[in-house]
Amino acid sequence: MNEVPPIRIRKANERPVDSRREFVLYWMVAYRRPHWNFSLQRAVEWARDLRKPLVILEALRCGYRWASDRLHAFVIQGMAANQEALQDRQVLYYPYLEAEPGAGRGLLEALAERAAVVVSDDFPCFFLPRMAHAAAGRIPVRFELVDSNGMLPLRAADKVFARAYDFRRFLQKNLPAHWGHVPEAEPLADVRLPRLVELPAEIARRWPAADPRGIAECPRRLADFPIDHAVAPAATAGGWLAAGQRLERFVQGLLPVYHEQRNQPDQPATSGLSPYLHFGHISVHQVFDEVTRRDGWTPRKVSAQADGSSRGWWNASEPVESFLDELITWRELGYNMCWQRDDYDQYDSLPDWARQTLAEHASDPRPQTYTLEEFERSETHDPLWNAAQRQLVREGTIHNYLRMLWGKKILHWTASPQEALDVMIHLNNKYALDGRNPNSYSGIFWTLGRYDRAWGPERPIFGKIRYMSSDNTARKVNVRQYLQTYGPAPRRS
User: Fold this and answer.
1) Would you tell me how many other CB atoms lie within 10 Å of the CB of residue 346?
2) What is the pLDDT of residues 192-241, one digit of tens each?
3) Per CATH, the architecture of 240-338 is what?
4) Which residues belong to CATH 1.10.579.10 in the chain?
5) Is the domain defined by 347-485 classed in CATH 3.30.1330.10?
6) For 164-189, what is the mean pLDDT?
7) Which of 117, 241, 276, 444 could form a disulfide with 282 if both were Cys (CB 3.0 to 4.6 A apart)?
8) What is the largest CA-CA distance in the chain?
């Protein structure tokens, strides 16, 4: 087994490993998968070297903001898939579902008291960094956070990039040094570890193991959790197995036309992988491996010229070039900001030019304004915007191209850009399966100028922010079928 690169490992406290204790603990919080996972691989390394059993704790709180049937169902489906995959492995997989806010308090500490070392996931967004920081003070042994977020290690770039072009150029210069350091596809294959049959009785009694398979098979049981039951589960199934199937369908059927049709709502050619990447049900390394292997690409094909261009550096086929730029450049651009700036989700994190132009036009008359509730219920005058919002509410996603329009029009129809930002974050995080993620914050803030430049002509409300309209969008892309699919639900007589 290859060792996890040191650049991906971060000590969260200064306490030592205690080899006298019973097991190694992997606290799975962001990379919820048994494959292609640097964190799991690091925990296996410790268990092997210390000759200890490995316990994998995968827990789900119920008190997080925007907790709902939709998000719970997706995560629990993933837990069920993990449970099945790990039941015959030499580990103890421990799924825990909090029945009420605070019920899980003390569980991590109880397990850590018996652990020689604790490993967890270094995810830079939502409440997870605060949770890890708080845990570091309570864990009595060495606590490591491992970065399995993207192709580029988070700490390989020591500055925040303001433009995709600059970040792409940095990637072209630095990413090749990390190609040889990929997570093991099967970190538990051929591993021989002592087996812990069950947890101590006092832990199992106070925090009983959950039944994710039972809940996944009977979603009505979600009613037992104190979460938002108005946001129904999406049709998209969660878990590493569903993620792999989705990747296979994309590579075989849609990837060849990705570069031509990715912006067409009536002929969707997007990968659909963003929810799985967000919840860690699939690794970007696995996606990269599958896409490039099918294309016959090897690292030897890479151009020596790192000029920041979005085409030509990979020397891959045109659809693969287009997809890799989205998968790596645009996705990891958001991670680059989130791990370095705590205010990534705050209005003041926008570029100076964007805040200045928005401030200059803050008092411009709005053609109409809508409340959060009207936005949420798709009650604007614009059929295309309403259709995009209905897709978000019904399916937990918006077509990638229309998501940009969705955000631009919220800016157009709110009393201030600050209010527009609040509306976008709330609706996206409440309904989107891929919300609460660095990449989704990149998309939201892009509508307000982040990663963009000043545009002319200067317009009311937008100033120099890039402008989009539904009429222009309908002229550029086909939306007739989209409008029919996501039109108003028929009224019951």
Assistant:
1) 12
2) 999 998 999 999 999 999 999 999 999 999 999 999 999 999 999 999 99
3) Alpha Horseshoe (1.25)
4) 347-485
5) no
6) 97
7) 276
8) 70
Structure tokens at 4: 């996890």
What are the φ/ψ torsions at residue 163 (nearest 5 degrees)? -135, 150
Q: Which two tokens stand for residue 447?
A: 């509508």
Distance CA 358, CA 129 (A): 31
Contact present, 449 and 411 (Cβ < 8 Å) = no
Calpha distance 214→220 (Å, rounded): 10
How far is residue 36's CA from residue 287's CA, in Å, rounded to a whole number?
A: 10
9-11 vs 143-146, strand pairing mode: antiparallel
pLDDT at 2: 85
Q: Which tens digit of pLDDT belongs to each residue from 41-57?
A: 999 999 999 999 999 99
Contacts of 205 (CB under 8 A, 6+ apart): none
Q: Which of 331, 318, 336, 314 is nearest to 262 (CA)?
A: 318
Cis peptide before 457 (omega within 30 of 0): yes
Query: Which among 221, 160, 153 has a CA at the least distance from the CA of 450?
Result: 160
Q: CA-to-CA distance for 122 and 183, rounded, in angstroms?
A: 15
Strand 23-28 relative to strand 9-11, pairing: unpaired
Identify the DSSP state of 57.
E
Angle 396-399-400 (CA atoms, 0-180°, nearest 5)? 115
Select from 195, 188, 198 the least CA-distant residue to 82: 188
Between 3.40.640.10, 3.40.50.620, 1.10.30.50, 2.40.30.60, what CATH number should domain 1-148 receive? 3.40.50.620
Distance of alpha carbon 427 from alpha carbon 287, whole angstroms: 28
Residue 85: HSE in the Cβ half-sphere, 13 Å Cα cutoff? 21
Q: Where in the chain is the domain with CATH 1.25.40.80?
A: 240-338
- In the chain, list all ranges with CATH 3.40.50.620: 1-148
Query: Alpha-carbon distance 452 to 448, whole Å?
Result: 9
207 in the Ramachandran plot: left (φ > 0), alpha (ψ -120 to 50) or beta?
beta
Whole-angstrom Cα distance, residue 181 to residue 168?
A: 20
Mean pLDDT on 82-105: 96
- Tally of CB atoms within 10 A around 441: 24
**Using CA atoms, how far apart are residues 484 and 468, in angstroms rounded to an integer?**
22
The edge-to-edge listing of strands for the beta sheet with 23-28 is 9-11, 143-146, 115-121, 23-28, 54-60, 92-97
Say yes or no to pLDDT of 493 above 90. Answer: no
Whole-angstrom Cα distance, residue 115 to residue 166? 43
